[in-house]
Structure formats: C-alpha cells, structure tokens
Amino acid sequence: MPSPFIESVRHTIRAKNYSVRTEKTYLHWIIRYIRFHQYQHPDTLNEFHIRTFLEHLAINRRVSPNTQKTALNALVFLYRTCLQRELADFSDFHRASAPKKLPTVLTVEEIAKLFLHLQGDAYLCGALMYGSGLRVMETVRLRHQDIDTDKLTVLVREGKGRKSRITTLAPQLVQTLNLQKDHIATLFAKDRLTPNWDGVFLPYALERKYPNAPFELGWQYLFPARNFSLDPRSGKQRRHHIGEQILQRAIKKALREAAIHKPASCHTLRHSFATHLLERGADIRTIQEQLGHSDVRTTEIYTHVLNRGGRAVISPFSHLANMQGSHMPPHE
C-alpha cells in the first residue's frame, strides 16, 4: 500500500494537470531518492542529499545526462511544489556525461525501401513522422481536427515541453488522411451508441472549459485503439489512442525486412525529415519552428550531419550555375 506521503505527491501532480506519463516518472524518481536515503522523509533531507543522489546516478549507475536531468526535475518538483521549500544552490553536482553522437539519418532511398514494408496505421504514422517531423507521441496523440488538408498543416498540441506548434503536411497524404478521418467518424458514431461510453480523454483544463468536447468528433483521436479501456485516474470508459510501442515495433520490423542495418527507430524519421529539408536548402530557423525546438542550437546538430557548417547555407552561385548549365565558361 502506497504511503500517505507518496499519495499526497500524486495528488499534487494531478492538481497540476500533469500527464500520466509525467506522474509515473516523477513518482519513480522520488521513491528511488527516498529509498537511497534509507527511507528518511524528504523533509529531513537537504541539498547535500539531493547532490549525493544525483552523483550516485551519474558515477555509480552511469545514467545518461537526460536520465539524470529527469531525476533532478522530479526532486525540484518535490521540494518546491510538494514541500514548498526553496532550495539553495547545489548546481555543482557531478553531471552525467555521454559521448556526443550525431543522430542516425536514413537516405531518401532507404526511406523509400522502409515504406514498402509499412501498412495501415504504421504507414500513415510513419509518413507523418517523416513528412511533418513529428515525434512518435505527438503522432499517436493527434486529434481528428488537428489535420487541415486544405491548408496542408498539422497542429501539434502540447508537444515536448507542453508547447504547441503547426508543421507542414505533404499533399500526397491528403487522400489517405481523409479516408482515415472518415473511418474515425464511423467509429465515433458507433461509440456514441455504446452504453457507459464516457467520451475521449481531454486534459483537465480543456475538459473543464469545454465539457461537451469529449463527445465531439473533432476531439477524437486520429489513431484510436481497437478497444475501450478504463482511464487509470477517473475510471471512465474511453477509447484511447494506439500505443507508441505498436509503432516502434512496426518500424523495427520494417527496418529488418528492408535490410536497413542502421540503428534506426521512429525518431530516425524525424531526424531524416530535418536533414532532408536542409539538403534541399531550407532555412535553419524554419526547420527549428517545424521541429518545435526552443533553441536553434538543438536544430543545428543536423548541419553537422551534412557537414556543411553553422547555417547550412547554400551559395547563391550554385543557383546561378544550375541556371546557366553548360553555358558556364570553362576553367582556365
């Protein structure tokens, strides 16, 4: 049985309208922190104990920088929000490190081979990850109304960092997406006739502001699960979106069948989207907006993939040479 303290932390997380995934992650690290310090109450611990735990993760457990950062975020939330204690500076803890590596990118030819081995939802989701630069969770969380086939845009709601953005949509996907939306409309009509159906999940703030929204077509998931499930928080019967593991397994299987031996994944399609845009001369700031990066330095890693330097700028002389073709004077 969970302790009253952990239950109070869980209640605080839910009061902040954090996702189920964030709740699970934060509780995991808070419990590990308490266990590491022999089950002492966090209110009796201080910055020294936080630093010791984070250094243990880096030195003894050899976690990645992102994992250590996630643990840090959970502990800062614990003290500032749950215990309402301001922490003194403890930023001198040993930081986890990992060798910097460039993202895996597939060539256009490899992308074409990969899609020959995808079908159904996996094909369409893969096309959105590669064609619109979406993360896997952003893809499975798309709603019926997030696809605008007239303006050729995709609305990403609360992506990483709870930021929303609009990205591009390939016109070649319009017909398939319209068929998918028709399928969702048919499924929605059936769901409405199901006893005890409680509508689709919406974040608390939206559901409170728009109480009828869970029962409207526009808010239904674009890639719904086959069956109903019970919401782990509310106990309501809903049709959730497909799990990201389904896509991850489908992409891995397609990679094997296409004989592509790179260490690729769903996220590789997003990397390939950015890299191929750069290859076609897209501006780095435009790609930053499409990917939803808050810092352009994150986007600039793709320029290193191309080995083009800071801004991946294509010389205007290249365009002139392409226009003049064989009329260019010979080099003497």
UniProtKB/TrEMBL annotation:
Keyword list (alphabetical) reads: DNA integration, DNA recombination, DNA-binding
| InterPro entries hit by this protein | CB, DNA_brk_join_enz, Integrase-like_cat_sf, Integrase_catalytic, Integrase_integron-type, Integrase_recombinase_N, Integrase_SAM-like_N, Tyrosine_recombinase_XerCD
Pfam families xref list: Phage_int_SAM_4 (PF13495), Phage_integrase (PF00589)
Q: Where is the Tyr recombinase domain?
A: 101-315
- The Core-binding (CB) domain covers 1-83
Family indicated by similarity: Belongs to the 'phage' integrase family.
Q: What is this protein called?
A: Integron integrase
Q: Which organism is it from?
A: Pseudomaricurvus hydrocarbonicus
Source taxonomy? Bacteria, Pseudomonadati, Pseudomonadota, Gammaproteobacteria, Cellvibrionales
